[in-house]
Amino acid sequence: MVRMKGQAYILPETLIDILQLITFVALFVGTFLIFTTYNVVIKSSFEDREAFTLVDVTLGDKCLLFEKDGNFFKGVFDINKLREGRTCVNLDGFSFKFDDVRGNSFAFGKCKSEKYSVPVSIKIGENFVIGKMVICY
Hints:
By secondary structure, the protein is an alpha+beta fold. It has a domain at 46-136. The chain is built from 3 helices and 6 strands, in the order ααββαββββ. It has a 6-stranded mixed sheet. Strand 5 and strand 6 form a beta hairpin.
């Protein structure tokens, strides 16, 4: 393109309008995708968050925990309390069970499908035995 004296080179207004429209559409689509992805993640993880809360509450359940001198030990369960089968936690659609390495199993509710397991310790007599707590829903 040959320029004449005093002539400035300016992008045509239509090209600028097209670039603005493309930028606006890209920002709109990007924002839409961010919010829809966030919604899907939050909705799908609702049961998982409730299950993790149940794990945390159960690990501190005084109705099941081992007690010594008025102190409760989080994550250490008394086998006698597990045999009684009474828990202070409202299960509300969930269930859990305890299994130890000696083959003892204690269920609280009907376990349909095992989702998560957490290592725990079970006090049997004077010994502490390794076990796991399984969350089902």
